[in-house]
Amino acid sequence: MREFIDQLIVKNLDNPFLRDLSDSVHLPLDIAFTTDSYVVDPIFFPGGDIGTLCVNGTVNDLVVSGAEPQYLSLGLILEEGMDIAELEKILISIQQASQEAGVQITTGDTKVVRRGQADKIYINTAGIGRIIAKASLSKVQPGDKIIVTGTLGEHSLAVMLARGDFGLETEAKSDCAPLNFLLPFWEQGVFWMRDITRGGLATVLSELAERLPHALIVEEEKIPLSRAVLGATQLLGIDPLYLACEGRAVLVAPESVADSILNEIKKHALGQGAEIIGSINDKIGKPGELLLATASGGLRLLEPLTSELLPRIC
Amino acid sequence: MREFIDQLIVKNLDNPFLRDLSDSVHLPLDIAFTTDSYVVDPIFFPGGDIGTLCVNGTVNDLVVSGAEPQYLSLGLILEEGMDIAELEKILISIQQASQEAGVQITTGDTKVVRRGQADKIYINTAGIGRIIAKASLSKVQPGDKIIVTGTLGEHSLAVMLARGDFGLETEAKSDCAPLNFLLPFWEQGVFWMRDITRGGLATVLSELAERLPHALIVEEEKIPLSRAVLGATQLLGIDPLYLACEGRAVLVAPESVADSILNEIKKHALGQGAEIIGSINDKIGKPGELLLATASGGLRLLEPLTSELLPRIC
């Protein structure tokens, strides 16, 4: 086990903290703390793998909570007989994603279970970040804008299709990416951010609406969707508003600066598809409601995702 | 999922941090950081369950690294169809163990995988502690004493027997417990601590020896073993020095204060079985060696555990 850790894990994830190989590492910080387990199936999919996902997913939880990501822990649960070449590929992805996101893997643990007691590999990362801001929902008022940072649903679609769920082929690639480029927008007045993961945009915004004394209105025609997602979801009868992303966020920004923030986001490679998709509203709907102004001119109440399949999309 | 989390998880683990249910929590600290995944089989065993284990294991990693345990994250991977009553029992154990160890579960995540893709439940905890001391191996010198805080091997034995590995019955109960009571000994001059987990005392001390310019000598007759462990290991031909504990530690203390530290440890309920079992040595053996002075008067070189079965004992 020790040799395995030295040869495979430390080699691929090398940094001064990890080199110590002690069970607990000392870090200098004032901190935000988060955790996620990753059980995605398949472990390799167009646009990423469980390694990129386990870094970016946890990094993004920190970013949207107002913290600059700094340190990750890494807990591996491996199925006996897992292909070591695949494991190494995943570790390389973890290292590359860590570098891209500016975080270090500082402490870790590996457990092995017998064949049939896990599906290849499950990964947990916990993340620590330096606090730079805090969401301030109490300042949100009618007229404030809702911005999404890019097209929706590619991650879910890429994973589901890679798994062969629908016997369909598309060019969809996961949007899995780190959202650190959003950190400066906290200073520019953004009130709230959330990464658009499980349950998709509709669920994330429903949960926001529940916490506000206003309604939210989202315009269907403004919601950015790639051709691949638009085509596949129409064909399959899936609502893209409920599909998870792993590299997109939704922001609430003051009306006065929303356009300039949108322009800034669009300048970044990961924000090119950003749009203002709606606003906080006091005239239509009731407080706590999330309403979709449909392309056909109607209004539809959006509810959070309730019955979840066992998706293993993250 | 949200209802499941509210009703089952937040209800059982309630504290002000967790109540927010945000994906990342802000904490005020200067910190140590650690993580472990727990895949113990069976999930309930004499003396504890996977819930007590996932708190104490991570708490103890912090204590022995010189940090006062403060906050834990909790990542659950559940097999579809897992008995909810069993899950709740585990969550109650987590909450009780957290209270006993003075830590709060501040952030968490739950994933569900299909039947046959996990064995009931796997848990990851990451832990954050306030740094109060640091091991100082450079100060260790010949004559310094090696102290174990209690009898060895009960945890491993209790789990293996509960699993039915040997068709044997004993009164062995896991030693799983938080080691916070050892924290004051950092101030009293202890140079180094380690919890005696995977690979047992022999592995932990071998790894220590490798890092020292001295040999370590341990006296077989001083090593505290319960009747249950002594009987079962003799019967089964297992060496108790390689059995994992989850509530025992080994300390290196200056010769001058070793006796007084031993007496202090023995006053604590979890330290009643403590003993000075050996010392740092320059006369016998070579630097980096761990030697066992056997009951029969011989000297035996102890190596770290190399070939690990897939034990799932933690």
Q: How does this structure look, described?
A:
Two copies of one chain form a homodimer. By secondary structure, chain A is of the alpha+beta class. Chain A has two domains: 2-131, PurM-like, N-terminal domain (60s Ribosomal Protein L30, Chain: A); 137-302, Phosphoribosyl-aminoimidazole Synthetase, Chain A, domain 2 (Alpha-Beta Complex), CATH 3.90.650. The first copy, chain A, has helices at residues 2-13, 16-19, 50-64, 84-101, 154-162, 184-187, 200-210, 227-236, 255-267, and strands at residues 24-27, 31-38, 44-45, 48-49, 67-79, 104-113, 121-131, 145-148, 192-195, 215-219, 249-253, 275-281, 290-293, 299-301. In chain A, the strands form three sheets. A seven-stranded mixed sheet of chain A has the order 9-11-8-12-10-13-14. In chain A, a hairpin with a 2-residue loop joins strand 3 (44-45) and strand 4. Chains A and B meet through strand 1, strand 2, helix 3, strand 5 and strand 6 of A and strand 1, strand 2, helix 3, strand 5 and strand 6 of B.
